[in-house]
Amino acid sequence: MKNxxxxxxxxxxxxxxxxxxxxxxPQISGEELLGYIPEAKAFxxxxxxxxxxxxxxxxxxxxxxxxxxxIREHYxxxxxxxxxxxxxxxxxxxxxxxxxxQHSRKPVVITGAQRPIDLPDTDARTNLMDSVRFAxxxxxxxxxxxxxxxxxxxxxxxxxxxxxxxxxxxINYPPVAVIQERRIIFYIDDKGQEIQPVCFSDxxxxxxxxxxxxxxxxxxxxDVLMDRYDxxxxxxxxxxxxxxxxDGSFREAIRKWTDAGKVVVMAxxxxxxxxxxxxxxxxxxxxxxxxxxxxxxxxxxxxxxxTMWILGKTRDRKAFRELFYTNVNxxxxxxPEG
Length: 338
Ligand code: ASP
Description:
three-stranded parallel beta sheet, binds aspartic acid
């Protein structure tokens, strides 16, 4: 692990925030962040760039494309990348980068903190040091989040706690590794299996609407959204139940969207264990009638980012389906039969 060359990409977030009269705001530079982990010099050289400095509340597809572009631009010059990022939308950025930067033998590590790095009781120094340590490890690869001692595949992370230091969980998939007292223990050590060359994308179609069904929702509302969006993701109940309160409004809306050549994806509002629309009549009927893809075990963040990434490449529904059901960075294990 000697003499690795790491690029630190500082983008803001709590890790780099200071208290102001208006609340926490990102003000600590990338160079200052590095100053808090002098021990990293023992095993790597680190350069710093800062393409933007934002609370991640304000990070969206444009910043995802910027980050992927920077990794592409600097890919040959570095052994690994560490992105400091706010935690609130970190899982979306990690998923998006998993699609925009595929088959990377070099690690792209995203980290942040629940408390600013200049506070005495912060988690930031440990997270940053763990991230650099992981990015410098020969076994590390692809996009992941390092946070609270866990290394989580970029497509599998979810922020589940707003305040605690163990903010992120790995959903429907084990953590890739854990980091305890400077030791990295790999649960999934599969770098040797990757043979494809790294592949970058820079196209995202952000015209994706997420609709969360609640008891009593009116499917007719979806008509209003149809002109504005290219894809509709429905966060349905349980394994994939679509309500029908007697007027068939959801089925009718799904018919209209699919007839208009738009993409409809079924997801679930239950974070763990995923969807399977074939189980209940309330899902089965819709799936059979319109043959719409469903999330299965993918996280909602991954489904959203994957839909935007695929629609950046193609609007063809068959091609969409094929790519949607292709496993990228461990995002999908529960593949449909046939
Ligand atoms: N609001 C902050 C952000 O996402 C929260 C954090 O970084 O923990 O940038």
